[in-house]
Amino acid sequence: MKNIYIKLICILSIFALFSCDKEDGLREESIIYVDQVHESEFDKWLYETFTVPYNMEIKWKWDDGEVDNNFHVTPPRKEKAEQFMKALYKIWIKPYEEVGGEEFIKTYVPKLIYLVGTPQFNDDGTMTLGLAEGGRKVSVFDVDSFDNLDLEKMSKSFHTMHHEFAHILHQKISYPTEYMNLSKGNYTGAWYNYGELEANTLGFISPYSMSKHSEDFVEIVATILTTVQNSNTPIERTVPEKNEYGIVTGNLVNMILTDFQLKLYMCGIGLVQNKDGSLTLKQDQSGPRGLSILLEKIDIITEYYKTEWGIDLFELQGKIEIATNELILENSEE
C-alpha cells in the first residue's frame, strides 16, 4: 500500500509540472487588485511644485502609518491643505531659496511633509503642533486652523516649519557649545508651568524654550522668522521708558521698532490689571539680566546662520514679510 501512495504522489507531481510547463505564458495584467488613489488637480500641483524640483513627498490624505496611533488626530480638510501648501511654497521655501540659495534648500529641505488637520493633545495638557523625524520628515498638525488672509496668523502658522527646519540644520552642523551654557541650570521638563513673563525674565523667548537648549535654539529662530510685521519698514511705537539699567521708569517714550524689536524691548515686562480696571506695568528686577542673556543667544544664533549656512536671518525675516503680504493680496482677490 505504501508503494502505491508513493507512485501516486510522483504521478501527481509530474502532472503538476507538466501543467505549469504547458501554460501559454504569464498574464500581462496583475492578478492582485490595487486600489488606485484618485489623483486630483491638487495632487498634480503638489507633484509638479514639490516632488519634481525638490524631491519632496507631500502627504495630506490619511495614512495611519505616519502618525502615532496613541493619539486621536484627523486628516486636514482639502481646502485647508491647499491653502497651507500654497503658503508653504510662497513664504517658506522661496524666501529660504532666495537667501540661502537653490542648492541649500534642495539639499536640506525635509523630504516628507505630512499634514494633520488637528493638534496632537498630550497627557500633560500640552499640544504638539509639529514633529521632525531624523532630518527627513516633518509632521505639521492643526492645519485646519490655518488662516490665509492674516499676516500675523499666517506667519505664526509657520512657526512649526521654521522650528523643525532649524532642528534639521543644527543636527547637520551643531551650534557653538557656549550657547548651551548660557541658561545652564534653568532648563526644565516642567516648562509648561511657566508663563511668558517668567520665561523672559530667565532669558528665554518662550516657555517651551526652557525644555532644553536645542529647543531654546530653534524657538528663537522660529520667533525671528514669524514675527515679521514691519520688518522692512519699522514704525513708531509708544513704549515704557527704561533707565540705564533696563528698569522701567514709569514714563513713556516713542521709538522706531520692528515687531520683533518691540517683542525684545518688552521682554520681561508685563501688564497687571488693578481692581479699578487700570493697568500697571510689571517688571521683575532680574528682567534686564534675562534680556541680556536672550540678546547673547540671538547674537550666537545669527552668527551661526551666517557662518555655517550663509543666511542672514533678518534678511530672511524681511523676505518672508514681503512674500506673506503678496500672498495675502493674492488670496483676497480670489
Which descriptors apply to this entry?
334 residues; alpha/beta; four-stranded mixed beta sheet; two-stranded antiparallel sheet; 12 helices; disordered N terminus; Substrate import-associated zinc metallohydrolase lipoprotein; LP_HExxH_w_TonB
If you had to describe this structure to a student in words, what would you say it looks like?
With 334 residues, the chain is α/β, with parallel strands linked by helices. It has a domain at 178-309. 48% of the residues lie in helices and 14% in strands. The chain has twelve helices and ten strands. It has helices at residues 2-21, 41-54, 78-100, 102-108, 151-157, 159-172, 177-181, 196-201, 213-226, 259-265, 287-309, 313-333, and strands at 57-59, 112-115, 120-121, 127-128, 130-133, 137-140, 235-242, 248-257, 269-273, 279-283. The strands form four sheets. The protein has a four-stranded mixed β-sheet, with helices on one face. Strands 3-4 form a two-stranded antiparallel ribbon. A hairpin with a 5-residue loop joins strand 9 and strand 10 (279-283). Helix 3 runs antiparallel to helix 12, helix 6 (159-172) packs across helix 9 (213-226) and helix 9 crosses helix 12. The longest helix is centred in the N-terminal third of the chain and has 23 residues, at 78-100. It is globular and about 60 Å long. Mean pLDDT is 86; it is low at 1-36.
Short description, anyone?
This protein is an alpha/beta fold.
Q: Class by helix and strand content?
A: alpha/beta
The overall pLDDT average reads: 86
Helical content class? 40-55%
Largest sheet: 4 strands, mixed
- Helix count from the secondary structure assignment: 12
Q: What is the chain-wise order of helices and strands?
A: HHEHHEEEEEHHHHHEEHEEHH
